[in-house]
Amino acid sequence: MDKARSTGALRWGSLLLLFVLACAALLVVSRRAAIDPAAAPAKSSFTPELVARGARLAAIGDCAGCHSSAAPLAGGVAMHTSFGIIYSTNITPDTATGIGAWTEAAFARAMREGVARDGSHLYPAFPYEHFTRLTDADIHALYAWLMTRDAVSARAPANRLIFPLGFRPLLAGWKLLFLERTPPSVNASQDAAYQRGAYLADALGHCGACHTPRNRLGAEERRHYLEGGEADGWHATALNAASPSPQPWSEEQLAAYLRTGMAPNHAIAGGPMQLVVQNLAAAGDDDIHALAVYIHAMQSEAKPPAAASERRAQQPLASVAGSDAQWEAGRQVYAQTCARCHDAGREPGSAGALQMPLAIANYLPDARNLIHIIRDGIHPPDNTPGRWMPAFGSTLTNAQLTALAAFLRHNAADAAPWPDLADAIKKTSSP
Ligand code: HEC
Ligand code: HEC
Ligand code: HEC
Fold first, then answer.
1. Which amino acids does the record list as binding heme c 2 (predicted)?
2. Among 58, 68, 128, 311, which is 20 to 30 Å from 203 by CA?
3. Ligand 2 centre from 430 Cα, in Å?
4. By three-state DSSP, how is residue 28 classified?
């Protein structure tokens, strides 16, 4: 007995020793030096052209989208991850609470290596997984833009992360495994607009942060670049050859969608994509065009069921009898609540909306986007004109939602039933 206990203790002791050694090693390799604070550069030291270029780039990088809550760029936006809540920080030129004392070298290190001025590691909720591939010229323009914004004094609330992830040195290990400087592969024979689009989509626009699936440690699976991922409880559609879109996307349609959130024959940008589009409004036309060229090329191998979905769109869905009780129940909900705007014969615009066989939400691997749209409706961002759909979260029961979603999946998309529909209904229930 005694012997067994002491070998057990020995084993625990050596494990503990190994753990302590590993932690010490990690601390040694992970330590980064602080970069001395410096006086904020005079706003007049940056040319107006450079600042304007930085503003257009920041629109593509969505800096304001993630860093603005109470005041522009002053941080405090809560990011919900599977590891807990991380707050974005103040990136205005305030010296005490923002990045006013950061030299351009400190800023560049944060963008490329995810290390703050004081040497601590930053969480990849800040998409430096992508910004690491920014050019020097773009970092310079972004710095000029940030340093010429209004300084705001504000400190982000403390993060709430599961143990032991609040311990920042652990991030050094994560970076060793996942931070990658080489860009995703591109087609070298394509033209300059494509190359620019590939760079913008990856390095600055970080489209993959939502549109690429992630592994269990929260890193993007680069082998599945843009093959569909997650964003705030929404499915972020595949943008490459795996696109499930019922209609092909032309370059012009993609440019219109990225510019306005709307394109003929395609669904409106919803959920997190609506915010992306809102921020892209300040991007340059040439860069929007480049993104469209690149995404269009990524999809050239996609095979949308265009003709079949168009044929279904021309028939009134509401009159297609369901073949069992649940579909029939779903058909009735559709006929009473949705058909007046979405059925065949109505066109998007003042009097109607897209036919359901053309709506990508019915074709996705799960039902969450469709249920989000039905529950919450569609509202144009504050103070902007746009298409509007009422919310049905408080008028439809879960049973009606389930029947409606099953009906649309079958009759609008002509696809196999969603296996986890009940789960999607649960996960999307309004707060
Ligand atoms: C998807 C959300 C997101 C986007 C987009 C984003 N950031 Fe951030 N950023 C964060 C979060 C979250 C942090 C805090 C990370 C931490 O505390 O470890 C952060 C931290 C930073 C920091 C470090 C600040 C400090 O005090 O340590 C800088 C600099 C920064 N971001 C600049 C930018 C710029 C410039 C852009 C646009 C090109 C941008 N960010 C876009 C989420 C984002
Ligand atoms: C008062 C009119 C109206 C009603 C009723 C309505 N919608 Fe919509 N819906 C819209 C508008 C407007 C849009 C925005 C895009 C557009 O014009 O197609 C939209 C968008 C959508 C989208 C995204 C695809 C797209 O068209 O952009 C889906 C999916 C959708 N609605 C499903 C439904 C379902 C299911 C119902 C019934 C529960 C419903 N809608 C009821 C007006 C309506
Ligand atoms: C914050 C997360 C997020 C980021 C970043 C993001 N997207 Fe999206 N995107 C989404 C989601 C979610 C959808 C699905 C929206 C819907 O169904 O209404 C979407 C939809 C789209 C669609 C429509 C796809 C289709 O076939 O209907 C396109 C095109 C698109 N995104 C392009 C981009 C590009 C290009 C970028 C980078 C510049 C980007 N997205 C960045 C979340 C994001």
1. 207, 210-211
2. 68
3. 18
4. helix
